[in-house]
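Appendix B: a complete holo record

For completeness, this appendix reproduces one full record from the ligand-bound portion of the collection. The bound molecule is S-adenosylmethionine. The inputs are the chain sequence and the ligand SMILES; the output is the full three-dimensional arrangement of the complex, encoded as structure tokens. No fields have been trimmed.
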Amino acid sequence: METAALASIHWHDERFKYDCEARNQTVEQACFHHFYGKNEITIVDLGSGTGSNCLYFFEKFPSQQNWIFIEQEEKISQYALNRLGIEADKKGYEITHGTNSLVLKKENRNINIRYITDSFLNLVDLVDLDKVDLVMASAVFDLISFSQFVDFGSVLLEKKLPLLTTLNYAEMNFNSDTPTDVVFIEKYESFMNRSQEFGKAMGKKCPRILVDFFQKQEAKIEYGPSIWKLEGESAQVMNHHLLNFMESASNQMMEDQDDRMLFKDWITSKREAVEDGELDTYVQYYDLFVSNK
Ligand SMILES: C[S@@+](CC[C@H](N)C(=O)[O-])C[C@H]1O[C@@H](n2cnc3c(N)ncnc32)[C@H](O)[C@@H]1O
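The structure of the chain with S-adenosylmethionine bound, as generated:
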């Protein structure tokens, strides 16, 4: 497996605990309430990564579930199915692996998962949306542009398809509050908004844009903050991942040599604080559940 995909998998796995703790319970309950009394549910998970949404929800949703993962990196999807098989086995499920699918069975519970390797921007061509009950997306919408999102959101509204979207990036800060923190957080955020072939990704504007879009369409919407709390010694690995991520992003946004030197000093001091168990990082996201009136 190539290094980038492997590094990304480690990062996804490490995040899981913090993602679970961050999930906004009011938003989640609105979703459960919507499906209350249903026996079977078909879910499409966009940018499904290592399968964290499925891992978190498969024991919370109705007993008959069909999951369709749409993920552009096939190796990550293969890893996701293995991971889900291992975790379900620990919970006493019977596991059946297929080429791009997995079935988990226990008593009356039946969880079917398959993945499609493609861009979720092609959703309408990949899946029969008339057979889908819920679209899910975690930590992906801030990666796409406003116009890409509008195309996508319009399809959901037209099909009256509920959407549960979590971990939409809003902002971050550290327990220290130095002016350089502000400067380099801004550099990092400007990386999210860099020009790409599809335009500029929504980045930190994502939550506001999503809420505004659905409110204007008079959809029913429940939303609220979800926060990664990466505190002290127990969060050392996550804090290192995040700093590495910021370093590679910020480096691409800095041409000036003085800025680069300042950044080097800043990131070194942050890494020292992590090693001493003294760095706390807070990354604020927003979760939303959208359904039609
Ligand atoms: C930040 S990760 C989030 C993964 C997962 N949803 C989670 O919460 O753990 C973003 C994932 O979306 C995938 N991705 C990004 N753009 C995509 C696209 N246009 N179509 C399909 N997958 C995409 C990436 O490969 C990556 O696995």
